[in-house]
Structures are given as C-alpha cells and as structure tokens.
Amino acid sequence: MTGGQKTTAGKKYVLIGFFFLILAAFLPGMKASAKEWPVAIKSCAIRRGSRDVVEVRYQKNSDRSGTDGNYYLFALGAWQMSLTNSMEPIDTVRQKSAGILRVDLKQNTKDSRLNKKFAVAVKKQNGAYELVSSFSYITNPEEVASYRYKFPTAVSKKGLQVNTEMISDAEDLGVRHSAVNIVLNDFLTEEWQQNSRYAYKFTFEGTTYWFSKAACAALEEKLLPMKKSNMIVTAILLMRGESKSLDMIAGGALRDGVYYYGLSTANERSVRKLSALMTFLAKRYARSGARYGRISNWVLGNEVENYGQYNYMGELSLAKYAKLYARSFRVVYNSIKSVYSNARIYISLSNCWNIKQPSGRSFTSRKTLEAFAASLKAEGEISWNLAFHPYPQPLTDPVFWDDLATNKSSTQFITMKNIGYLTDYLKRRYGRGVRVILSEQGFTSVSGGQENQELQAAAFAYAYYIAEFNDSIDAFILHRHVDNEDEVAQGLCLGLWSTSGDSVEWAGEKKKIWTVFRYIDTNQSRRVTNFALDILGVSSWSQLVDGFTWTRFTKMASIKTSDLQAVQDLEKPRSLKTWTEAYGVTVEEKGSTTVLTPKQGLNRNLFRGVGKAFDEPMNFSKRPEVYFRIKLSGTSAKRAEVKIRFYSGSHLYESRGKVTVGRETAVSANLSAWKYKNKVDKIQILVKPNGASAWNTEAQITIKDLQMGMTVG
To answer: pTM score > 0.90 for this model?
Structure first.
C-alpha cells in the first residue's frame, strides 16, 4: 500500500483485467486490439512546435486487396460512425508499412479539427472509400494552449466547500482547496438576451455565441475571494433540464426525478456549442492573470455512475453510456486544455464501487470507470483524472473505520477506510499519471440521534491524515462549511458550524471540528488531534497511517496569536492605508480614515472588515509595531472583538482584542517575535460584535491612521 491507512500484510488483490479485455471486444466502436484492423493508428497528435499541423502516424498490419495503393485520411464528427458519400479525404499517401498523414488543424475556424476523430481509408476499384483503421482523436490539445503556467500547488490538501458569504471564516480556517458548482445552463441566453447589455459576445469556429453576464458575475463573486485567499478551485460542471438547453442535453428528453443531465455530442451543433462554452469558460477562468478568478480543476458531472439522478442520457447499456460520456468528456477536455495546457479534467464517482445506488438506475462506480477509460483509450488516450466521494457507509455514521469496506477487489464500497485500495488500483491499472481529488465527503456530528462532536472531529482528523499521506491524492475537500437544514432533517450534520435556524444554511455555533480543521495542517496539528487517539484506540497516528510523520506539519503552515495592546508612541511611522479587499462591508476612503458600512442580511457570526494584499511583500522587521484607531456603532452589543491578521504565505500572525462599542479606541499589534515578519504579503482588520448581535442599518466601522513603526524608547 503506497500511503494511506495501514492494511494487513500479505493481502493479495484479484485482478480481473482479462475479463474487461474480452468485454472491450464487444463494446460498440471499440476493438480489443488495433491489429484487428488492416491499419493501426499509432498516434494522432498536433506536431510539437507547429500549433497547426496534425500528424497521424500509422502502421500497416495487413494488405487490403483491390485498392488503388493509397491511404486516405478522413476527419469525422464525434457523432459519426462511418463514412458517407459526401465526405472527402483530407490527405493521401502511398501505402507503406508505416507512415505519416498530415493535415492542418484549422483551430477556431468553421473547419476546425480540434474535436474531430481521424481514420484511415482505402479507395476500392469502384471508387468507394472503405475504413481500414479505428478512429483516433487528437491526444495533445495542450500543444496549442495560450496559457502554459505551472499547475498551482498548495501547502496541504485541506479543502472545504466554502460558503462564499463566509470567506473571512474560510481564511480563518486556512482553506487551501475549494469547489464550486457551475450550472452550464446559467451561461446560455434566450434570444432577447443576446446583446451586449445582458451577455458577452463570443465568436468561436465561425459562429457567434452570447454567454450570460449575470452568470459570470455570480460565479466571479465566488471565485475572486477564493483567488485572493490562494485557494485552488475545482469546478463541477452540471447541466439542468431546461428548455433553452435541449440542444445540449444528451437525448434531448427531460424526465421527472432527474437533477442533472449528460451533455449532448449528437451532432455538429451540439459539439460546437459545448466546445464554445467550455472554451469561453477556460479563457475567462484559466487565464494567467486570474482577473476574474481562477479554476484549475474541472469535473464533468457529479457521481456519473448514478445516471438516473445526476447524468441522465436515457436508458442505455453501460457500454453505450460510457462511450457517450467519454465523448462529451473529450470535447470538454480538448476545449479546456487547448486554452490552458496544465488544466486537469476529472470524472466524478461515488463510493458505490461494486454496488449500484439504492435507486437502481445506476451502474457501479468500478464498471463505469473501467468502461469510460476503455472508451477513451480506444480512440486516443488522454490524461483523465478522478474526483471521488468516499463518504462513510452509511452516511449517518461518522465511524468509517468500522465500515464493511475492504481492500479486496470485491469490496462493495470505497470509503476513507480503504481509499488506499482505490489509489493502488488506479496505479496498477492506469499508471501513476491519474491524479485523485477527494472532492466531496463529510462526517456527521449526530449519530444514532445523539450529538457527538468529538466523534465527528476525530473522523475528520483520521480521514485527513490518510489523504495527506497518500501520494496519489491532491485534495481533501470537506462537505460542508455549515450544517444544511435539509441534510439535518436526514440525520446529516456535516458542517464545521451548526445551523442557527435563521435560514437553510446559517452559521450558528462552531463545532469542535472547526478548531481541528483550522489547525490540522499547521505546526499545531498534534495538539488539536491528540484527543482522537483515545477514540480510535491507539497511542499514535503512525499505528493507523502509513508514512505518518509530524515533521510534515512543521513545514506546512503556522498560526501565532497575541493580544492587541494599548497604543505606544511610534517612531518613524509609515502609513499602510488603501484597502484592496472587503469582507461583508462597503468601503469609503476619507483621507487617513476608512469608513466601513456592514452589509445587511449576512450572518451575525461573521467577522466584517477589510484587507490589503501587497504587490510585493512588506518587511516589518524595522517597524514591527502596527497601530490603528477604531470605532464601531450601530449594534446592540456593548463590546466587540477586533483582530488584525498578518499573512506570510501560509503563515499567519493574528492579534486580537476587545473594544467598547461607540468609543474610539487606539490599539497596536507587535510583530517583533514573529518569525515571518520580514515577508508579509497581506494584512486584514476584522470586527464582530459580541454574541450574535446584528449590525443595524446605521452601523459603521471607522478605521483611522493605520501605521507601521517602532515603539519610542
């Protein structure tokens, strides 16, 4: 087992690859071996450095009699399975034992071949063309990408499905990864919206599209704060059943009980529209400057083995379903990778490995994955990845370590108990190139009708450590930030916060898991998780997690805290004004004074305030004292908590104190003892009234004379 939880030594895995090799021979459009065709396509790729030349390398396996002695290259649409009389070859070579056929890519023209599949044919004596090879798509669309920056990295794998109204809390928690749903329908427009007032004009492959400005603004309201917080963002691409989207829905038919639908590649219009939308999103959200926020990971669908609810394309066989999903996956892949070369594209699967969903209208995750991978490989292998949901089984029990999940190939479920089996299986079958993100899982704080926050926190700590020490896993994204009342009604209290009942998802009180989550990837990891060892019945984490070492956490991140102090006179003060970020407030600058107006309708437990990200890190070594005056009004609370934060990469220094509402108070923070004071890249000042007191409509927060300096004497 390479990383993850301990397993019993000597266990052997049962390989069933032979069965699937035989099965592949019967899948439509797929061949068990390229040698079944007279010609094998060995590669189909954009020539390196050319950006506009596609090279199809072939090898002759056998002769086809009665031909004119040439090989002809054809480009077909994704939906086309055979040659038609109207098709013309796009290149010709004399038949040899091996050779290369070449053609222009013609990217972003009406004749673009980016999403075409190529095949070799011969011309028979009657003048008709006959296919003599299987199909192959371009396998390296990244060769033409405009953006080629390195894939972003984070200091740890700690992630959360962030409630974006609580971005200040997410920063407090040190969230490194997050996920957002992108409902593709929202970007499509009705005819009356297809103008510059409501939509962005986007010309793609000779056709003009209009994509919704409102949808972009709503998404950017989430993405921009996440980018400013240095989170790596995963987008889950979903399609609802709406009349304006019928040409993008596989099968084109709506059905009751379906949440989301598969994407259509049934004709040229559908393929081009899907590719246009994905190219638009990639150009906007994968651009190097991250002007609108950044998306690095793209997941096509949600738990797609559960087709009856989450990826409906009709009542299909597994082979047909996998082929259609793989086809839409490839269009999404080619579109995004041709914009940003290092983007990662994922298939989404649930924990139901060898068992169908209770609804029955599903396949198993394993069979879906294997049929999907085989479909891709048969027509040009690309670097797909896996977004997995290893919830406990059942979801209402956080104690995943006693799940029925096993490390055998026959295991019904894959949970955090046996996640190492999954990553080892992927390495054996598909190589080390497949990356895994655990994009959704959670642990309830109520089990058997009883509240047990310690058990929830212990389950999270154990699961997180398993993921952190598994080298195939890149992110562990917890579901969810705040308990959701609809889930609570089902016995699922999965949040870091309880819900107050004021709305479906309204933060009430922090649970124990909040503190564990905040510190688990810092130098205080041991302190906040030691309690869990008794619950788990062991004396050290290394008894449970292969490769576990505390050294990893001393290098990740740190949090240091102090109390705000009464103001001292400063020497050589330097102004730090001009804010770049706002948290639940509107900002007005008046000389050396900043006036903040708290927005109404937001959670009462949230800190409000401002932040400033420096273009170049600031050195506070010679001026370690930071001074400011603050005054609050417009709340029934008599006291309020104030904190000023200093960030240096993943390291945080936080100074807190209490002030009296209605009175101007001068306070200071001293960074002298902080190791990272010489390289501060961001500061924040945040405020919250005591208790759950609200801000009224006349509320204001006034910050004056923010300065850095040194204490006199």
So the answer is: yes
